[in-house]
Amino acid sequence: MRNAPNLAIVGFGVGDLAIGLGAVTIVLGVIFAGLAAPVHRLFMGGRWRSAPA
């Protein structure tokens, strides 16, 4: 009978971990997307390379 509450606590901990990792992934994605435009503009002059003929 004591195992069920402990299992529920662990389950909530795993759920919180999944939510936290999702939030970190979203923040890192926004950071990388925000850095992509300035780096592209810096190294490629804002233009995509033309395809080889």
- Secondary structure: helix percent: over 70%
Largest sheet: none
Oligomeric assembly: single chain
Structural class of the secondary elements?
Answer: mainly alpha
Distance between the termini: 73 Å
Whole-number radius of gyration?
22 Å
Determine the strand fraction and express it as a percent band: under 5%
Order of helices and strands: H
Unreliable spans: none
Give the averaged pLDDT, no decimals.
86
The gross shape turns out to be rod-shaped
Describe this structure in words.
This protein is mostly helical and 53 residues long. It contains one helix and no strands. The chain is rod-shaped and about 70 Å long. It starts with a helix and ends in a 9-residue tail after the last helix. The model has no long low-confidence stretch (mean pLDDT 86).
List keywords for this structure.
mainly alpha
Set down the secondary structure blueprint:
Blueprint: H1 3-44
Short description:
This protein is mostly helical and 53 residues long.
